[in-house]
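[INFO] parsing input record for Glycosyl transferases group 1
[DEBUG] input buffer:
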Amino acid sequence: MSVLWGVSFDATALSGVVVEFLKTAGRLAGRRVHLDLGYDIKTDKGAFFRPYRDEAGLLPGWVTLDRVAGTGEIRGYDRAFAERVLREFVQGGDGRLWPEIDRIAGELAGKIVATWERLGVTMVMVENGTLPENVTYTEALYRAIDRYGGRHRLGRFVFWRDHDLMWQSEPGIAKYGRFPYPGVPAPRNSPHIHYFALHEHAKAETLRWVPDLRNIDVLPNAFTIAPARIDGRNAGFRRDHGIPGDVPLLARITRIIPQKRLDRDLHLLALLPGVWLFVAGDTAEAPAEHARLVRLATRLGVRDRVVFGGWLTPYDTTVPGRYSVRDLLAHATVVSFLTSYDYESYGNPVSEAIASGTPYITSGYELYDVVYGRAGFRAPVLDIRARDLPDEPFAREVAELITDEGKRAEVVRANSELGRARFGADVVGDLVERLYPPPMGAGTRLSVVLPVYNEAANLPEVLRTLHDQRDGDGPLDKSRYEVVLVDNNSTDDTVAVAHAFAADHPDLALHVVHEAEQGVSCARRAGMDFAAARSRNRPDTDPGERFYLVSADADCRVDAHWLGELFAAMEASKAAIGVCDYYYDAGHFTGRPRLWDAIRKTLRCRAVTFSLFGGFPDGKGFAVERDAYERAGGIEIFYQLRDGEFVSHLSDDWDFGIKVACGGDAITYAPRSRVEINPRRVDHAIDEVIAGRAYGSGGTIVMRDIRPSAPAAVTDLTEAEARQAWEFSIKDFTPKNTILPVLLTPALLADDAVVAFFGPDLAARLARRIAEIRDEMRVLDFTPIHAYKTPSYRLYFEFADELFACLRRHVGEDIGFPPPLPPCLAKVPPERFTEFVRYYCEDRESGEAHDYFGNGGVF
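[DEBUG] output buffer:
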């Protein structure tokens, strides 16, 4: 089983930092989880080198408490040294300690790596590692990550999240120095680390500190948005703490230390007769502060309405025999967070209140607006820049919230909706699961990538055909493949449909990831990159075993043996790309013989040339071997202008095949691996199909939305329309499928089967002409779209009659003869025909050549 190693720099058995680790680790299914609480890292909790005692009882059973073995054996590494480094190196800027830091960090890194090797760690989660309480350990951790990740080729196996940073942790006393924090190991670019900040402000400040830092995302703390309710387990909470059942209860969830400003809650309580205050915090952490607050409560006359309830287990955790923060929230009327201005960053108690369906009040601490205020969350806010303590106007606002049940309900409704959208568990889970999905099984050989946009109506049937794959007479082993669905900003129920299907079919691994940039090429690349990276972490695999990335389309059904046949063809041929056979259901075109004849002729031509040249991949169905995918640089995102804005080009599948072929890798055709094309591609774009505008005009290739909004056209084409549709189809087909393969790989013209198709004389003349055009154009590489289209079009015009003779001979006489030339070429004298073909095909201003050739496949 894959092993997750977590390390918390908090040195507390169950803190907010540890809880966030548990929430995230709980999403990373299929991993054995080990957690180092950081006792041997952080000094101010008094646990350095202390053995674990009963801490495991506070954690879920699926977590194993662990720590790096042998750290106590390192000469000079102890609590005193860590405190000295903080005092002299971080705060004092004294660099004389660096040689000792460097030595100890090197030995620590070795101990960390040895522990990971012993356990077989495949993923690491670092919580708060940048906070420089112990920079020696941070430096050691960076070294261990690079050493271990490089040795095992693990990619970005480290999830590094900072809850606290120098500028938001007691900045008034410059505990960690001043910007740019010369004594702090700054986050560094590593091929093994993905960084996470809690909000946009923290990300921006991190990038101000380290401007060239890459791979950093915003990942807010996660909460399940669900009302906290009184139930059988917590019904006695008020009784057990001596709180009357009918009084309003103000809840304060905090450490009892001066920076938290609990005195504000006591002053507010004095202005709210009949209201009680429950303080959830460890009274033994700072006994002097607790005593001071008791004296203040007595002086203000509210001591009998204040309960110092001691430490509660954090939100979303349950410890037998103990009450939790969520139990308190079930009984609370309002949550208070009147903290100091510069102490808190995220303010978890506010999120906990929002998630539990409890109104809250807060001070206007430094980052409140960044995290909550500007997002529109509703609450009374104490302006502590203008008034240090609550006054009568603020108390009246709080009293109204306490006594007005309707207002409380409206505030809860509004805040819950915003909370679900901004830090709900699903929002966070989408990012975590995309970057760190469940480990891929050792037997998985294929990842099927399915880009989707608003396909809720069609998706169940498409997923069914992917699920019901066959291998001979039985089902295809589900451990052999997985499905990666890439949602490209759907606004319908596409994602919900996918999750529901996954829940109903747990035997098939179905991952849902998101791609924010619109465009099928962007989505296809995101899914293939995702699958390729994960495939490298499969356990116990033969280094020579091939892994395949497979493309499918969200509106096309695959045949039952589609994947098995494609896999078999790739394994047998050892090709880089495997291309499927595509077909329409003839029954859909019953009563439309002219339209069906045009479609059928195109498919027949494709079957012949694909068998001969291997064809080029089509997003509807192809496979690429992972290493070949990475050698080619992945799916290329090429941009073009449409209506004055850049959009991603639609020919990513063809362009990718061209890159692979030009790299010297082979393409094979798998005729028994079949995909049924959705007829809506014709039915709902029939006018554009007839006129050759289905994929754009004027040189701009676009895809119109062909999702049915009205009944499909069911009448047949006229003879003239059928002829026009066929001519555009064959004009698109011939340059791409008979010329382009040999243009990219001229050596094919010496292959016996290719020579038999063209005939020896035509094959020889094509080879000479390709060499001449290459020299004339000074083209070294025909891979770029602007490089291959012009010579393909030129060769078509120069050899059209002979090429069509080849098609008639090998496909059928009904293929006929070349469509009429563009009128401008028909008027050119024969002796200057080749010269003007060049001008026509290279006219980059008009796009007429693109329009003539149909701007992309029609059928």
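[INFO] The chain has a mean pLDDT of 89.
[INFO] shutting down worker
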